[in-house]
Write a structure and sequence with these properties.
The protein has 94 residues and is an all-alpha fold. The protein has one domain. The protein is built from five helices and no strands. Helix 2 runs antiparallel to helix 3 (43-53).
């Protein structure tokens, strides 16, 4: 269940989630939210995502998604955020 702040953020970026039904958008998972904002969002939406979910949590989601066999991120997005998260995110590598 998303917080009211995250639901508002999704409404503000509603056009990015074009293939979801309007009534389903506010209940998308954090994984979908991260993928769509990193792939299609702008600098302001990415910054807000980091504020709402925490950069370390976003980085963990990103790394899990990019380790799968099928990856939905654009190659340039993967490259950029790999560099960005390596510099700014604190990962718990076990």
């Amino acid at each position: 269940m998303n917080t009211p702040e995250i639901k508002q953020f999704i409404r503000e970026n509603s056009s990015l989630f074009w293939h979801f039904k309007e009534e389903e958008k506010e209940n998308i998972s954090h994984e979908i939210l991260v993928e769509f904002i990193l792939n299609y969002g702008n600098d302001k939406s990415v910054k807000k995502l980091f504020e709402l979910l925490d950069i370390d949590y976003v980085a963990d989601i990103f790394y899990k998604q990019t380790k799968r066999q099928r990856v939905n991120y654009f190659p340039q997005v993967i490259n950029f955020f790999n560099l960005y998260f390596n510099k700014y995110a604190h990962r718990n590598i076990v």
